[in-house]
Amino acid sequence: MTRYLSHIRLARNPAAQALAPLLTPFDKAARRSAQHNLLWSVFSDGPDRRRDFLWREERDGSFLALSSRPPVQTDLFETHQVKEFAPALAPGDRLDFQLRCNATRTERTGALSATGKEKKRHIDLVMDALRAFPGRDDLPEDAASLRAPQRMKLAREVGQAWLARQGEKAAFRVIEAEVEDYSAEVLPGHRGPRRGQPQFGILDLVGRIEITDPAAFLAQLPQGFGRAKAFGCGLMLIRRAG
Fold first, then answer.
1. What are phi and psi of 26, to 5 degrees?
2. Architecture of 94-240 per CATH?
3. pLDDT at position 49 over 70
């Protein structure tokens, strides 16, 4: 199946810019949901269409998307930059990568849903590991600054281990991986007190991998890695290592 890698940018015309606060709001939780709906506008061709694209926001506010269909051009956007995505890979090829992801593990609960399916629980790995560390309010004043380095160290360890497991399933070997950033965001649509609100963690991983089975890797790449794909996670960007 042909895949397309697209660079999508909101138009700079007055009409689009007037809608910008609604299309890409400042509030992080609302922003990710709005961005997802914004990208749906160029990929969804009917009410029954299921999401078949991955996306991520770039630093300049534009978007990259990997999809099974090219995006539709509308007046809200500048002319899309679209190219077919069909990398020719061989075993042993090394690729530099960027991956924004929500790293989780799935646990069985033993309970059944109303339809008889077994309920499962998705555990955010970094958040789960961070529970072992004291909160900022629990640290003495002179030690409070230690939490940020500890947090990033733990995020790096958890992210590297999670990525290695992804590689075992998706036919690549991790040569090196670093965490450029880690943040926790509120799930879009949450209403209620801030304390105890549902959140998900976002890791920005960069590094280098080695391909062991090109066909298996290229089959997994459009499916994405981790969860929260509707909110801009899961798309691995690759290029040949220099």
1. -70, -40
2. 2-Layer Sandwich (3.30)
3. yes
